Amino acid sequence: MAWLTIDRSLQIPLIRQIYKQLRTKILNGELSAGYRLPSTRSLAEDLEVSRNVVLEAYDQLLAEGYLEGQQGAGTFVAEGAYLKKKDKIATFIKDDSTSKKNNNNIIDFRSGIPALDLFPRKQWGQLAKSVSIETDHSLFGYDSPEGRIELRSVLSDYLLRTRGVECHPDQLVITTGATQALTLIAKLLISLNDKVIIEDPITHEIQTIFQSYGASLLPIRVDKNGMDTSQFPHGIKTAFIFVTPSHQFPMGGTLPIQRRIQLIEYARKMDSYIVEDDYDSEFRYEGPPVSSLQGLEPERTIYIGTFSKILSPALRLGYLILPPTLIKRCRELKHFSDLHTPSLEQLTLSLFIREGFLEKHIFRMKKVYRKRRDFLKEQLYNEFGDKVKIHGDSTGLHLIAEFDGIHFTDILLSKIHDDGIKVYPVESHTINKGLYSNHIILGFGNLDEVKIANGVAKFKKSLLTK
Ligand SMILES: Cc1ncc(COP(=O)(O)O)c(C=O)c1O
Predict the structure, then answer these.
(1) Are residues 145 and 68 in the same domain?
(2) Residue 288 pLDDT class (50, 70, 90 cuts)
(3) Residue 314 predicted with pLDDT over 80
(4) Under DSSP, is residue 190 helix (H, G, I), strand (E, B) or coil?
(5) Per residue in 136-188, pLDDT tens?
(6) Do 365 and 351 fall within a single domain?
């Protein structure tokens, strides 16, 4: 049979090679029903393989129903083994291999990415190795939905010390990043058409998560001090109030104590929960550290934290702190979401915190990020002078740049991208549109000084040639 080939250089066994070629030809109709196959002896001779090899390939096809035959009468292609070819599936998923290639040269000011090259690989690796080798074998089984007690205990001490968060380890649920914490909150608290009070602007993903669980969003404008709590609606029952009080995303304000009190009093009056997303406040460059809102009102505040910014988003480690009344239901929801967050990473992180490495890492990174932030500001002022205003740069891994007379339309943003720079419009995170069209978000966490300088210069050039 000239149309079968054997390639002895392949790692694939000869039986498998014959089986696969015949199967393909039957499925695509090249060998149609009733076709008589050569005898095993003659095919073996043709292909210069032992007869047993062909026999086994035929047997497999007979067992699976592709062939039929009787002793002595020959072997035939069976009825109904032809599979009509589908039209070629349209490529809905854009082949991004080419864009990825180009992306290597793009300077990306995406916010919220820590310095990936400064991840403490050695310390993390050593601890991960010891967890993997030395821990009891039960670690490799299923675990509890709320997460490892080692991590929850060390975290509750750490959070009290650094963020003024008051919680018992049992109030903690370890999540797969803050994103899962947000989803769990949505499942826990939102019923169809429930109202949720939320900052405007606020991360587009967060809006989408809440809306996908049926929430109707009540946007409250933010200013340089975060959410404007004097704008809360009267007489409307809300599922919860969502707020980023330590570092408003994206505008960067910190909620002062007067607004915190106003927010708590409003939540008490309306009998509403407060959801506090504390995603990156460890990196505060100006003013004293701000304590959490949760510490002021633990009874009705749900606190969300994450290790994505202080360590790495790839770890997918975050957590929720819940008032006691919500713990049981939240653990159930976490169980039905993904059973639990990976145990090895949880244990490694608990050791990383217990050994004091986390606080040392934050201390070191704060200096790195402060320098990058200062350098970015300097470059922006050098290139744009009084045509640029900078906001929300006292905390975190991004700042907001407001440009005189420039509107970051989709066309302009795509031109800037084509010129090798990625910047992010505040407008993509707004609920009420049109107020921030000249504001962009510039992340600096993962950009060294060379990239920042090149990035700002190229950005200016791109704007000048529009
Ligand atoms: C305000 C805010 N909350 C939560 C998250 C999600 O973080 P995680 O990586 O832990 O899911 C982000 C991500 O950038 C964020 O900006």
Answers:
(1) no
(2) confident
(3) yes
(4) coil
(5) 999 999 999 999 999 999 999 999 988 889 899 999 999 999 999 999 999 99
(6) no
| Domain match, 344 and 391 both | no
- Asked if residue 24 has pLDDT above 80, the reply is yes
Among 179, 204, 315, 320, the mutation site with the greatest number of ligand 1 atoms within 8 A of its Cβ is 179
Contact yes or no for 231/207 (Cβ under 8 A): no
Amino acid at 325: T
Same domain, 321 and 174: yes
Q: Do residue 352 and residue 367 come from a single domain?
A: no
pLDDT in tens, 354-381: 999 999 999 999 999 999 999 999 999 9
Same domain, 266 and 202: yes
Q: Is the pLDDT of residue 430 over 50?
A: yes
Structurally, the chain folds into a number of domains equal to 3
Angle ∠(222,402,116) on CA atoms, nearest 5: 85
Give pLDDT, residue 25. 92
Tokens found for residue 255: 């909620």
CA 351 to chain centre: 24
Cα–Cα dist 434/174, whole Å: 38
Q: Which residues contact 16 (CB under 8 A, 6 or more apart)?
A: 57
Provide mean pLDDT across the span 221-242: 95
Instruction: Name every residue whose Cβ is closer than 8 Å to that of residue 49 and which is 6 or more positions away in sequence.
Output: 6, 14, 18
Nearest CA-CA partner of 337 in 168, 204, 146: 146
- Stretch 93-108: mean pLDDT: 63
Residues having CB closer than 6 A to ligand 1 are 112, 177-179, 203, 244, 249, 277, 279, 306, 308, 313, 318
Residue 395: partners with Cβ closer than 8 Å, 6 or more residues away: 246, 247, 252, 254, 280, 281, 283, 284, 285, 286
Report residue 70's pLDDT band, with 50, 70 and 90 as the boundaries: confident
Mutate to test the pocket of ligand 1, among 277, 317, 345, 426 (most ligand atoms within 8 A of CB): 277
Which residue owns the Cα nearest ligand 1 atom 14? 112
Cα gap 220→198, rounded to integer Å: 6
Structural domain for 389, as ranges? 108-116+360-464
**Cβ contact 279:304 at 8 Å:** yes
Residue 201 Cα to ligand 1 middle (Å): 15
CA 18 to chain centre: 44
Q: How confident is the model at residue 90 (pLDDT cuts 50, 70, 90)?
A: low
